[in-house]
Amino acid sequence: MLTDPIADMLTRIRNAHLALHKEVSVPRSKIKESIAAILKQEGYIEDVAMEEAEIKISLKYFKGKPVISGLKRVSKPGRRVYVGSTDIPKVQNGLGICILSTSSGVLAGTQARDRKVGGELLCEIW
């Protein structure tokens, strides 16, 4: 049993990028599906395929280098980080995204800022 499944997902993506894999599988859950959908929508991954027990993520490369250069888990099980709609951080001066769990669902930082909702700051990707 994992204590932090989101951190496990981010670590699997990071390790697969370092090994230059084309695809990575993670155990399926609703929050991980939402995070993967946001990554696809923002252009950080190629495709997402939902299977019965796992999510297959097709990784994206540009000129042989990974599109995702960094992933960081912000809110952890031992220390939750919450932000208001005006305090949502700009990752790498706007070159990256942050993902929040809000009352409106899991949203990218720009969407949450536009809807004026805050929430738990899950991770940052650049």
Explain the layout of strands and helices.
Elements: H1 5-18, E1 23-27, H2 30-41, E2 45-50, E3 54-59, E4 61-62, E5 65-66, E6 71-73, E7 82-83, E8 97-102, E9 105-108, H3 109-115, E10 119-125
Radius of gyration, CA atoms, in whole angstroms: 14 Å
End-to-end Cα distance, whole Å, is: 29 Å
Identify low-pLDDT runs. Answer: none
Query: How many E-type strands?
Result: 10
Q: What composes the largest sheet?
A: 5 strands, antiparallel
* Overall pLDDT: 95
Protein name: Small ribosomal subunit protein uS8
Organism: Nitratidesulfovibrio liaohensis
Pfam family, one: Ribosomal_S8
GO cellular component, one term: ribosome
